[in-house]
Amino acid sequence: MANRYWNEYQKNIADDHYYYERSCIRQTFFPGSETAFLKMMQDELGKDIFDDFRLHTCTGIGYHTDVVPLETTMTVVARIFSLMKERGYENLVPSCITSFGVFTEMCHMWQEHPELLEQTRENLYKACKREFDMPKNIAHPSDLIFKYRFELAEKMKYRLVNRFTGKPLNVVEHIGCHYAKLFPDKGVGKAEFPYVLAGMIEAWGGHVVDYPERRHCCGFGFRQYLVQENRGYSVSNTKKKLESMEPYEPDFIVSNCPGCSMFLDRWQYTIAEMEHKTYDREGYGIPVLTYEEMAGLLLGYDPWELGLQIHQVQSERLLDKIGIPYDPKQKYNSASGKILRAPEKPENLLV
Amino acid sequence: MADAALIATGYQVFDAHRKEELGYGIYKGVITSLDMEQMIKHGKILNANGDEPKRITFLQCVGSRDEKSGNHYCSKICCVTAVKQAIEVRKQLPKCEASVFYMDLRMWGQGFEEMYRTAQEKYGVSFVRGRISEAAGTFDGRVQLKSEDTLMGLPLKMTTDLLVLMVGMEASCGTKVLGKSCDISGDYGFIRTVNPHLYDNETGRPGLFAAGTCKRPMSVSDSINDARSAANAIKDYLETLG
Ligand code: SF4
Q1: Same domain for A52 and A185?
Q2: CB–CB of A212 and B20 under 8 A?
Q3: How confident is the model at residue A1 (pLDDT cuts 50, 70, 90)?
Q4: Mutate which of A6, A208, A211 to test chain B, going by most B C-beta atoms within 10 A?
Q5: Predicted confidence band of residue A4 (pLDDT cuts 50, 70, 90)
Q6: What is the tally of helices (H) and strands (E) in chain B?
Q7: Could you tell me the pTM of the whole model?
Q8: Does the residue A94 lie in any domain?
Q9: Which whole number is the average pLDDT over B89-101?
């Protein structure tokens, strides 16, 4: 019964031939995730995903903090679409959930107000002599992984199952607000019970935790974090979610938004420092993964190449539960094998 | 072949699954006013765990006066029903709290405004002006609610054993099909009459009449009166045929 709503709403996700827009912040927060996505799509599934080195910001964070005016955002987005057109693509897959929201919103505004579209065409042409078309299909990478979740499952070496107990792992899924709350029909499963991550978790053997604050915002909220004085709002929202999920003893959290993954992870350190409180039994915190990291781990990609050591809450205990091997000595080595210094250990959150 | 026919295909209750944010069909503690009526009738009001509930919350206007479900009209009967059910809860379970979340209370009909007052003064039912934006299941099988108390201007979060959705009235499938096939379909799929004030049983098609909730939400007494009126209208019509 719980699947009823999630399954009722399915969005149109093009099969193939996507233009990939990398994210400004994801490459820093989760350095292995975008590479893992490309590997999955191109190598595992043989899809045509074009990774364009010429791409630039969508202005999303500036737009949502009122630093960048709407006309500028429209023109910058139009430039991205013009680059896509130049490469001969019609389907767009933006890595960041905020970019996904911004692109969807701009297209919606242009459809509703053709005069804005004309103005943007003019602005873009004046600025850089470029022309653009709106994408035929905008999908988030999590949509694509969701679409091909069963094909990927066939290639996976591991499942979301606790190898010691044989039971499905308890997974908390958290959907970025800009995925379906702006335009519910643009998200798999719509806004209230999005199915995009839940579908992956179920297909790969895990159990989706349905906890009271599941639909609550992670607290990032752009201004709530970016204006330093407001950070209390941000951390208190994350705390609300963590407290609500704690009784269900989640094995990990997975999210499809950079802000959510970042803050659900990092604020665990902050709360541990402020209140000596962690949300697992042993004091290590609840690991937070991106959906690419979750998929990549199950496909057998190296945890350190996926960048799990960059997270605040460390993942070895989760890897042990699933039975994924890892080399502790390689954890803080660079890609070229250089030994990097391990980060300092927090006082209250065990690592 | 008959000289006259009366459409009395009635209504159906709003399918609460469509208000997905309220969790009907997902959380066992979320029920409809129909479910509650059955429990009251059998004298067995139980929560999702089969225990006696400590708090029951009613939510008005589910599927009525609502942009999302596309029904902008008032269903007319649910305010009275909620107040009645809340009183019944307090009578059957004196230790159980009962609260009603409303937009405004529309106590149509004689004696109902007094019943609303009695619910507060005699039975201690509390009334909160606000819509519930989200219901979610809790670890112990209860339901967590988020709302805003619009009189206080404050957000509100509470946990309840049962959330009762006061589901509104919609045109039944039969009403919609007949309305379309006879070209007398009006707003929201209800049957359209010639004039809702003066010729409210005439459909504009010779010999075809309509009565009751196939036209719009009505209470039982309104429906009985309307049935009488339709019988008279048909009689008058048959007399004109000679
Ligand atoms: S009768 Fe009351 S609960 Fe029912 S739709 Fe009208 S105002 Fe809402």
Answers
A1: no
A2: no
A3: very low
A4: A211
A5: low
A6: 5, 12
A7: 0.91
A8: yes
A9: 98
Best CA proximity match to A92, nearest among A42, A46, A51: A51
Using alpha carbons, select from B214, B218, B162, B206 the residue that is nearest to residue B190.
B214
A165, A95: one domain: no
Is the ipTM higher than 0.85? The answer is no
Chain B nearest-CA distance from A25, in A, is 31
Q: Superfamily assignment of B15-169 in CATH? A: FAD/NAD(P)-binding domain (3.50.50.60)
User: Closest approach of chain A CAs to the CA of B142, in angstroms?
Assistant: 10
User: Strands A252-255 and A170-174, how do they pair?
Assistant: parallel
**If residue B59 lies in a helix (H) or strand (E), which one and from where to where?**
strand B55-62
- The answer on pLDDT for A2 being more than 60 is no
Indicate if ligand 1 lies below 6 Å from the C-beta of B81: no
Q: What is the pLDDT of residues B130-143, one digit of tens each?
A: 999 999 999 999 99
Is any atom of ligand 1 closer than 6 Å to the C-beta of B106? yes
| Digit-coded pLDDT (tens) for A227-245 | 888 899 999 999 999 999 9
- A71: domain range? 15-139
Mean pLDDT of A316-323: 98
CB contact under 8 A, A4 and B137: no
Q: Where in chain B is the domain with CATH 3.50.50.60?
A: 15-169
Q: Are B136 and A212 inside 8 Å of each other by CB?
A: yes
pLDDT score recorded for residue B183: 96
Phi first, then psi: give them for residue A58, nearest 5 degrees. -95, -5
* Cβ pair A247:B26 closer than 8 A: no
Are residues A177 and A239 part of one domain?
yes
Interchain contact, A215 vs B144, CB within 8 Å: no
Q: Tokens in use for A208?
A: 């989706």
- Count of alpha carbons within 13 angstroms of residue A33, beta-carbon side: 32
Give the minimum alpha-carbon distance from A244 to chain B in angstroms, rounded to a whole number: 9
Question: In this model, does residue B38 exceed pLDDT 60?
Answer: yes
B21 contacts in chain A (CB < 8 Å)? 192
Please report the number of interchain residue pairs, chain A to chain B, with beta-carbon separation below 8 angstroms: 31
A101, A169: one domain: no
Q: Does B136 touch chain A (CB under 8 A)?
A: yes
> Of all helices (H) and strands (E), which one includes residue A174?
strand A170-174
For residue range A106-127, list pLDDT tens digits in order: 999 999 999 999 999 999 999 9
Q: Which of B76, B81, B84, B165 to mutate to test the pocket of ligand 1 (most atoms within 8 A of CB)?
A: B76
A77 lies in the same domain as A55:
yes
Q: Give the helix ranges, DSSP H, for B44-198.
A: 78-92, 112-121, 173-181
Q: Which domain CATH number covers A186? A: 3.40.50.11810
The answer to the question of residue A198 being in a domain is yes
Least confident of A6-15, A185-194, A265-274, B146-155: A6-15
Determine the distance separating the centroid of ligand 1 and the alpha carbon of A43, expressed in angstroms: 57
